[in-house]
Amino acid sequence: MPRSPEPSLVPAKLLWESAVKAEVYRSVVWLAVFFVLLAGESAVAQQAKAKKQPETKPPPDMANVSYGPHERNVMDMWKAKSERPTPLLVFIHGGGFHGGSKEALQPYLLKGCLDNGISVAAINYRLSPEVMFPAHYMDCARAIQFARSKAKDWNLDPKCVAASGGSAGAGTSLWLGFHDDMADVKNNDPVLRESTRLSCMVVFGAQSTYDPRAIKKLVGGRAHEHPALEGFYGLKPEELETEKAYKLYEAASAINYLTKDDPPVFAFYNEERVLPDNPKAGQGIHSINFGTYLKEKMDALGIECVVRHADERRDWQSESIEFLKKYLRPRS
User: Fold this and answer.
1) Domains of the chain: which residue ranges?
2) What class, spelled out in words, does domain 62-328 have in CATH?
3) In whole angstroms, what is the distance from residue 320 CA to residue 323 CA?
4) I want to staple 223 with a disulfide (CB 3.0 to 4.6 A). Which of 195, 284, 321, 323 is the partner?
5) How far is CA 213 from CA 27, 241, 248, in A?
6) Which tens digits make up the pLDDT trace of 117-148?
């Protein structure tokens, strides 16, 4: 009779084979998991890298178009594709009235407008110390008038024009939007016969007043000591607390022109809401307090004023485009 295997050897061999198979299986599983994680990590890394890539803007349809006699009286123009006249957004750069350029136009704003049938013009204007108030404002007013004078050639709707900008460009946009129409119908210059009125304003870090006395009350700290203000007004240090200065402060502040027939505003802010204990001169010049003060005045007149802050974590970019669409009513 054949000899049977020893009972103790069979289980040992089977256990060894099972252990090997289990180890191989675990290795395969871990390799699969590793490659999945690697692929996932690579995808995340690629997405992060893509987010870090700076947004680009398409080249303008017309670059450095002259709208006035000075070398900085130029604009770039992007035409929205449409068979019918399109609304226009005029972008006014910031820079404390002594710096900056039209290249500051945000890519999201340009794309959002063009995708929704809104043409865009980004402008330069004269700067301090070469000029003082109101020259900066008047250059921007002329740019709007010039664009309107080209309405037929550029396929624009002259009745649907908005302004946008950051900081100084935001304050300028508000001033132009609230100011009475500066059209001079009898002027020998046909450009100056055009309207300066706006349909709405979308602004970033806007100052609703440039009166240091009001800024001190609204913001506190040393915001009212911003060095750009002195150059903007062309005042000497000894003139800052004089009747001459006070008249300039009041004339340059958008809030002083606000009336019930003025256009609506969308305002976004991202400066910290609370000043540090020892603020620097000018810190707080982009405070949301300018916006809440403006909203209080506009609400009282029944004019829409939307104020947003970065800490609210809202999709303010989409909101701003929707705001433009609402008040410019682009034609399809």
Assistant:
1) 1-53, 62-328
2) alpha beta
3) 5
4) 284
5) 74, 10, 12
6) 999 999 999 999 999 999 999 999 999 999 99
